[in-house]
Amino acid sequence: MQRLALDARRGGKRIGVVPTMGFLHDGHASLIREARSQSDLVITTIFVNPLQFAPNEDFSRYPRDLERDTRIADEAGCDVLFTPTPEEMYPPGFDATISIGGVTAPFEGVFRPTHYDGVATVVAKLLTLTQADKAFFGQKDYQQCMVVKKLVRDLSMPHDIIVCPTQREADGLAMSSRNVYLSPENRTKATVLHKALQAAQTLIRAGERRRARIEALLSETILAESGFTIDYAAAADSMTLEQPSEAFAQEQGIVLLLAVRLGGTRLIDNLVV
Ligand code: AMP
Fold first, then answer.
1. Which residues contact 192 (CB under 8 A, 6 or more apart)?
2. Phi, psi values for residue 232, rounded to 5°
3. Band of pLDDT at residue 184, cut at 50, 70 and 90
4. Does 160 lie in the same domain as 198?
5. Is the pTM of this model over 0.70?
6. Is 27 close to ligand 1, i.e. is its CB under 6 Å away?
7. What is the domain extent for residue 236?
8. Contact 141 CB / ligand 1 (< 6 Å)
9. Same domain, yes or no: 227 and 255
């Protein structure tokens, strides 16, 4: 992979990279299309990264379909699919971990304490292997985008990180490979996440800045449906993820962040207001 990428760079090509865990959907395809529009060589990586899953999580049952992924990536304009195995990425003796502080601590960091070390380590490796000029990530994983930006800034890595908008199903549910885990009944219920985000957005736009009020509306909207457990339903500063004890300042950007569990499936979503 790295030899191919270095040759392309020496040939003057701009390399765009879309890191994924596969089981591609139109959210991934939108990143590939964006990479296509900004690059000469588009590389999509498919790697279900064991380092970013805790032992109790869904690593072994994470959905996989390489044949279908190949077709979707190709149609979206991908030139090269890079699909390494865990043994190739982490051969015996592999002993490195990249650990980013600060922005990794709240929200996902509370519920998945080892997750972002795994993400930072694999992203550093994938960007180096693919020699990415630009790497494309989805806003769907808002905190992950902040972690990746921090990674390249703190380690002076020469990659531009491009954040692309969240793609949604017609009823508002954010596209996710994990949506296939949902039963038909829970698939219908899951639309309440986007409804909660929109309700809180309306409240903020009407002038509400008290964090407790905003977060209460998020939680109440979700819990009006049965079967949900909330990991967090939060409002935070969109640049720092800090949470004011009382109220946001009038001009402060606010990100609404949700992580819930429904019938054994964990779903996340967010909205920047
Ligand atoms: P994943 O395969 O879930 O690790 O996601 C790979 C990349 O696709 C990440 O940068 C995600 O943020 C992005 N992504 C996932 N779902 C969506 C979506 N619904 N819209 C836009 N980007 C997405």
1. 221, 222, 224, 225, 228
2. -155, 150
3. very high
4. no
5. yes
6. yes
7. 177-272
8. yes
9. yes
CA of 241 to the centre of ligand 1 (A): 20
Q: Is 109 in the pocket of ligand 1 (CB under 6 A)?
A: no
Decide the pairing of beta strands 160-164 and 80-82.
Answer: unpaired
**Interval between CA 29 and ligand 1 midpoint (Å):** 9
Q: Domain check: are 16 and 141 in the same one?
A: yes
Overall average pLDDT of the 113-141 stretch: 98
Residues 229 and 100 in one domain: no
Report the length, in residues, of the chain. 273
Whether 183 and 92 share a structural domain: no
Mutate to test the pocket of ligand 1, among 24, 25, 28, 112 (most ligand atoms within 8 A of CB): 28
Residue 28 falls in the annotated catalytic set:
yes
DSSP 8-state assignment for residue 137: E
Which CATH number do you get for residue 224? 3.30.1300.10
Instruction: Please indicate, yes or no, whether residues 183 and 158 belong to a single structural domain of this protein.
Output: no
- Which residue has the least CA distance to atom 7 on ligand 1? 20
What is the per-residue pLDDT across 5-42, written as a single tens digit (0 to 9) for each? 999 999 999 999 999 999 999 999 999 999 999 999 99
How far is 222 from 191, CA to CA, in rounded Å?
A: 9
Selected catalytic residue, list 25, 28, 115, 194: 28
pLDDT (tens digit per residue) in 168-179: 999 999 999 999
CB atoms within 10 A of CB 13: 16
